[in-house]
Amino acid sequence: MTARLLVLGSTGRIGCLLRRAWQEPPEGLAPVWHGRGASSDLAWDMLAEPWPGGRADVVLTLAGVTNRAGRLEDNGALGMAGCRAAEAAGARHVFLLSSGAVYGSARSEDLSEADEPRPDTPYGEAKLAMERAALEWRRPGRPGLTILRLGNVAGADALLGPRRAPGESIVLDPVPGAGGPVRTYIGPVSLADVLARLARLAIGGAPLPEVLNLGAAPPVDMADLLEAAGLAWRWGPPRDDVIPRVGLALDRLAALCPLRADAGTPARLVAEWRALA
Q: Other CB atoms closer than 10 Å to residue 144's CB: what's the count?
């Protein structure tokens, strides 16, 4: 039986990559794409209109705000709209996209789901407030809930994602005594595979954690990523506030959704981005 997977917020960067990855629907899943454009299966203003009706087996809420101009506090309202839509649609489970930014940046170890969030940016604070509201909403009789704390997605990030003018070089902050900043990344194809796997586990009634880090191991040096992509770049001036490393611990994800061994390598990340660009 094919299950209906409602994807809320499918017109953002991650949603667009996911739509390309799922041009052929994943096994056992029928994606229903939500947005405000004519290309969407479901047009719905999540912040201004009531749930328009319809059934879904699983809901994936990608909708969110990443910049201050877009009212970061709307992240909480969008997350709760996704939770309420899942309940109204009779869904078994709702996945709510959050960010590794909730952990904060002043740590050297890989951050696990058991670590206390200590956000140090307005975006991280807004995402943590969304998480807390959703966890308070969850109770028996409502859909299951998994909060997905995502690292960087190759092609949807600030390094590879923006279009640049011909001849424009990317400026990368150097890390004293090292290379470039190190971050947890995942390629868009691997991300699509993980999300499909999680949806099928939810439909099958498998126990899923309330919080799950998303990324591919190991964390990658951004300079290595730029080199693998063959992009023009240069070092910027030294900065005292550069954050050397933000890594996510991925043991919990690996137990649920094993990735290919090279999923976190610069070459694979770039290949997946280019395959869907």
A: 18
